[in-house]
Amino acid sequence: MATNHRIRLNSRPVGMPTAENFLHDEVPVESPGEGQVLLRTLYLSLDPYMRGRMSDAKSYARPTEIGEVMVGATVSEVVESRSPEFSPGDIVLGYGGWQEYSIEDASQLRRIDPEIAPVSTALGVLGMPGFTAYAGLLEIGMPKPGETVVVAAATGPVGSVVGQIAKIVGARAVGIAGGPDKVAHLKELGFDVALDHRSPNFRQELAEAVPEGIDVYFENVGGKVFEAVLPLLNTFARVPVCGLVSSYNLTELPPGPDRTGLLMSTILRQSLTVRGFIQSEFVDRLGEQFLSDMRSWIQEGKIRYREDIRTGLDRAPEYFNELLTGGNFGKMVVAVGEQSQR
C-alpha cells in the first residue's frame, strides 16, 4: 500500500516560522469517494499568503488548524478517478496542500494542457499569481498610456507580470527589487527603470525615476518601500494593495512615530484610491479572459516568466522561509514527484 508523506501545522509561529511549527508524518493513501479523484502531487506552490493562514488572527480566509495539512495550490496527476470528468494520467490544478497525495472533489479541479506551457506555470504566470497581477492592475490600477506604474517585489510572480502588463497597455513601468541580479532581470523583462531597495540612496533614486510622479503603485511589500513611495503619488493615483510581506513576521508594531495621520492626510489631499483586494473576488468575471490574454501574450513574447523550482517536499518549510525573506528569484515551486510515462 502506498504511503502519503505530508507536512502539517504543528504550532502557530511567533515571528519567523521554525522547524518546530511543522510536523512531518506518513499515512496510508486512501481511495476517492464518488465524484472525487485521487491525485499524486507533481508541483507545490509556495506563496506568502500561507504565513497568514498559519495565524489564527482574523483574515479573509479561515486559518489552518493545528494538525491540518498545510494549505497550498498543487499541480497533480490523476491516479484514480470516480468522476467522469477525469481519467488516470490527466494533469490538473488543485489545492492538495503540502503532501504527496490528496483526494479532491472533481468539481474543484481544472485540467491543464501541457502543450500550452510547462504544467508548473499553472501555479505562477498562468495561475493565481498571474491572475492577481492581471486583475489587480487592470481593475484597480487602471493604468492609462503614458502613466507611470511602480511595483514592489517586481521580480516575484506577481510583480513581474504587473510590470509587463503595464508595458502592454502603454504605461511606463518602474520595478523595485532587492539586489543587483534581480535589478538586471527587470531590465531583461523590459521595465523602463529598475531600482534596488537595498541601495542607501533608494529614496532619491526613486524620486529621480518618477519625475512626473506615480500614477499607480502596486503594493506587495509595505514598510520602507511604501514610505518612499507615498510622497511621490500623484493626485488621483491608484494603489492596489496585494500584499505586505515586510510585516508578515512582525510580532509588534514597528518602531517610530505613528504615521497614520500622514497616510490619511495624503489620501485625502491627493484624492488617492487605496484598495485592498483578494484575487478570488474577480475570478468569475475575469478568469477566462485572463487565461486567453495571458496565453496569447506568452506566445507573442510580450510576457516572460521565471520559475524558482526547488526539489523535495521535506524541505518545503525551509524554502518557505527563504520566500518570506526574498530568497527566491521568480515563482517558487517545489517539485514533489515526477509525471508518469503513459
Characterize the structure shown.
The protein is an alpha/beta fold. It folds into 2 domains: 1-123 and 304-333, Medium-chain alcohol dehydrogenases, catalytic domain (Quinone Oxidoreductase, Chain A, domain 1, Alpha-Beta Complex); 126-278, Rossmann fold, CATH 3.40.50.720. It is built from 9 helices and 15 strands. The chain has helices at residues 49-53, 128-141, 159-168, 180-188, 202-209, 223-229, 260-269, 283-299, 316-324, and strands at residues 3-9, 22-28, 36-45, 74-81, 91-94, 101-105, 110-111, 148-151, 172-177, 193-196, 214-218, 233-241, 273-276, 307-311, 331-335. The strands form 3 sheets. Strands 3, 4, 5, 6, 7, 14 and 15 form a 7-stranded mixed sheet that branches. A 6-stranded parallel sheet has the order 10-9-8-11-12-13, sandwiched between helices. Strands 1-2 form a two-stranded antiparallel ribbon. Strand 14 (307-311), helix 9 (316-324) and strand 15 (331-335) form a beta-alpha-beta unit. The longest helix is centred in the last third of the chain and has 17 residues, at 283-299. The two termini are 21 Å apart. The mean pLDDT is 95. Keywords: Oxidoreductase. It is an enzyme of class 1 (oxidoreductase).
